[in-house]
């Protein structure tokens, strides 16, 4: 699999939700029951103002990675769960004027090639908000390493979501996210 054969760009995630959830199931270890629940959640999220998605497709047109997010809204469920943790740490203001990375997943056979980095920088480049927030399982992992390399810092740790077996960390970064080569994901300077 040649990385040059992977294209990053906007994707109609509602039309490709099953392809995306197949990637997420492999990358995140979802059961069939969890996939059914998440399908409805993804489709509902995509109805929010400003929601957008980017995909990574291989030469055959197969979705091998995706990211989606939206401007944060304090009335959303996620914000309601994380707000007390952020408030306790003095970082609740991060819930305002932030673009939330809701999901980011790359097929396991394509991980470690910079695809996740390209997806997250592409989606945050389209935002006119000054910062980005996300939640990730609160353990040392390649995902958390990527987020740190992109400038995300821990805003809260040991965050417990209902029915999630493991605690999460909430992380935030100023936008635009840094690049290895100093250029945005599109290859041209950001205006």
Which characteristics define this entry?
191 residues, alpha+beta, 7-stranded mixed sheet, 5 helices, 7 strands, 30% helix, globular, disordered C terminus
- E-strand count: 7
Query: Mind summarizing the main beta sheet?
Result: 7 strands, mixed
Query: Mean of residue pLDDT?
Result: 92
Give the percentage of residues in beta strands.
Answer: 25-35%
Identify low-pLDDT runs.
184-191
User: Rounded to an integer, what's the Rg over CA atoms?
Assistant: 16 Å
Strand order of the largest sheet: 1-2-3-4-5-7-6
CA-CA gap between termini: 33 Å
Number of discrete helical segments: 5
The level of helicity is: 25-40%
What does the overall shape look like?
Answer: globular
Order of helices and strands: EHHEEHEHEHEE
Provide the structure class. Answer: alpha+beta
Question: What's this entry about, in short?
Answer:
By secondary structure, the protein is of the alpha+beta class.
Model description:
This protein has 191 residues and is α+β, with helices and mostly antiparallel strands. It has helices at 17-28, 32-45, 77-88, 115-125, 142-149, and strands spanning 7-10, 52-57, 63-71, 98-106, 131-137, 153-159, 168-174. Strands 1-2-3-4-5-7-6 form a seven-stranded mixed sheet, with helices on both faces. The longest helix is centred in the N-terminal third of the chain and has 14 residues, at 32-45. The N and C termini lie far apart (33 Å).
């Amino acid at each position: 699999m040649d990385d040059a054969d992977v294209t990053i760009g906007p994707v109609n995630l509602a039309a490709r939700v099953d392809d995306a959830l197949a990637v997420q199931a492999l990358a995140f270890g979802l059961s069939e029951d969890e996939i059914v629940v998440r399908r409805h959640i993804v489709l509902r999220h995509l109805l929010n103002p400003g929601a957008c998605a980017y995909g990574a497709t291989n030469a055959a047109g197969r979705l091998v990675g995706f990211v989606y997010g939206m401007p944060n809204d304090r009335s959303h469920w996620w914000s309601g769960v994380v707000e007390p943790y952020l408030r306790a740490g003095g970082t609740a203001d991060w819930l305002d004027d932030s673009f939330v990375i809701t999901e980011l997943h790359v097929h396991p056979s394509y991980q470690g090639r910079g695809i996740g980095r390209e997806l997250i920088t592409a989606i945050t480049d389209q935002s006119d908000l000054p910062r980005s927030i996300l939640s990730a399982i609160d353990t040392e992992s390649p995902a958390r390493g990527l987020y740190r390399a992109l400038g995300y810092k821990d805003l809260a740790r040991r965050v417990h979501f209902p029915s999630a077996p493991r605690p999460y960390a909430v992380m935030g970064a100023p936008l635009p996210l840094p690049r290895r080569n100093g250029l945005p994901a599109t290859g041209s300077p950001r205006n």
